[in-house]
């Protein structure tokens, strides 16, 4: 029985540094959005009993998890490590949803109109996030493929 060869991805120093820079940029954006989102949520549902400090703590913890897991998921997809990418993606999805769940659990009864608006915003931001991640993966795979085509053959 012959063992299946494993694909090892050896990346250049420049590629690794670019990935690190992009991951740090993503982390900064996620943490910044967390602060902005807390102000928006507090203004929208603060009158319904939401504690903005608890929400901020939950959102910051979730943002830290998202800041780590989303770049790892993208990198795994780019490197064709799909099982690991799905694992990181599931963790990122949970991190994305936890602060929104607190909105429903941490408030008194919300009017149906507000529930619909919050759910629509959650769905819209999730869709935008998925589209953005898919675009990043496609762009990175195309870049990797074009770089592989330009390399002289061994």
Which class of secondary structure composition applies to the elements? Answer: mainly alpha
Share of helical residues: over 70%
Q: Please report which band the strand proportion falls in: under 5%, 5-15%, 15-25%, 25-35%, 35-45% or over 45%.
A: under 5%
User: How many domains in all?
Assistant: 1
Determine the N-to-C terminus distance. 28 Å
Number of strands: 0
Overall 3D form = elongated
* Low-pLDDT regions: 1-8
| Assembly level | single chain
SSE run: HHHH
Sketch the major β-sheet: none
Average pLDDT number? 86
Secondary structure tally, helices: 4
Radius of gyration of CA atoms, rounded to a whole number: 19 Å
Characterise this structure:
This protein has 154 residues and is mostly helical. It has one domain (17-147). The protein is built from four helices and no strands. Mean pLDDT is 86; it is low at 1-8.
């Amino acid at each position: 029985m012959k063992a299946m060869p494993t694909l090892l991805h050896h990346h250049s120093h420049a590629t690794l540094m670019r990935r690190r820079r992009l991951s740090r940029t993503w982390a900064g954006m996620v943490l910044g959005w967390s602060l902005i989102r807390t102000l928006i949520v507090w203004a929208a549902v603060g009158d319904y009993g939401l504690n903005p400090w608890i929400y901020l703590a939950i959102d910051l913890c979730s943002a830290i998890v998202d800041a780590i897991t989303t770049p790892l998921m993208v990198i795994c997809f780019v490197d064709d490590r799909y099982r690991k990418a799905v694992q990181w993606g599931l963790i990122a999805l949970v991190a994305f949803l936890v602060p929104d769940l607190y909105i429903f659990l941490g408030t008194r009864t919300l009017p149906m109109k507000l529930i619909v608006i919050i759910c629509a915003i959650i769905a819209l931001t999730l869709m935008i996030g998925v589209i953005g991640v898919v675009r990043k993966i496609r762009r990175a795979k195309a870049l990797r493929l074009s770089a592989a085509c330009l390399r002289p053959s061994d």
